[in-house]
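Morning, I've got a small favour to ask if you have a moment. Here's the protein in full, and shout if anything looks odd to you:
***
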Amino acid sequence: MNSIPYGRHDISSEDIEAVVQVLRSDFLTQGPSVAEFEKKFAEYIGCKYAVAVSNGTAALHLCALALNVNEGDKVITTSLTFAASANCIRYCGGEVLFADIDPATLLLDIQQVKKILEAHPKGSIKGIIPVDFAGHPVNLEEYRKLADEYGLWIIEDACHAPGGYFTDSKKVKQHCGNGVYAELAIFSFHPVKHIATGEGGMITTNDEALYKKLLLLRTHGITKDPALLIENHGGWYYEMQELGYNYRLSDMQAALGISQLKKADDGLRKRKEIAQHYEEAFKGIKEITTLPFHEEHAYHLYILQVQDRLGLYNHLKANQIFAQVHYIPVHTMPYYKGLGYLKGSLPKVEKYYEHCLSIPMYPSLKREEQDYVIDTIKKYLLK
């Protein structure tokens, strides 16, 4: 049995040919493939606009900039996420307020968010960044009501959840990132994600003004659009109108993304099949805690909670199964502790961290490999 990682990219001959075609073209970057990827991704998600960027972190940073996060602005997010979900606020000089999770979903607990809002003067908190953790979609309809009550914006961190959805109060499926309830949403195209471009990210929105601002900020704050220029010296002329960044995606990456997008639905179907097989295999084993299977879930990760996490992790590694932990709570990182965030302040996420383990979950995981993972886990926990 070859080694089995927790996540793995799946690159086909069609993917390779798509990149080769760009390498043979006139554009390696700032060409037509990026716009094509944006258009097709927006159609897949069900939103009006999509902006391709260099990675998910750049996407978060640009969202914070577009929403005018400034020095001292307070924003609420979860500690159960990759650090970038919080760091994007710090990049702009803002203050992060961490709320605890709901152990039944592992998502940001809206009741804890309400407590934070009630404890601060109205208007002092600017926004919320909910995270579709592991692929489980946040009910953004509930968050929109709360945001409207307190005058907040919402950035949906949907990096784990392309293809995921929740059903709103009108029985309408709301796909992650579709812009119905959040001003902005972001996705990542890191190799272990549903759609892989090596590095890469996407911002989605239905707000035209935010869309145009994101386009400007993505490319140094520079425009050549004659309709936007303050002066115009000729066809070569451009203006830097804001302090922006070089957060562009290349055409090579975009071509890979377009090709990967074609098999996104099939990959999502396989992830759900794998999740259902795990659930059936671990049903009734008191040593293992899992969350119930949900059709709406995009299953970027499959997570167990066990008493002896370190022992199981080492046992799996010894048997060439490379599990991972998602995540070390952000508020316990030295940087954030240095800002005054205290260990013990978020007891539910900290308890979860002590027991969580992400086991192999990716579309190309073979059934015999999955059964080997299951058997290896059972042999250790039921010895």
In short: The chain has two domains: 4-261, 264-381. The first strand starts at residue 4 and ends at 5.
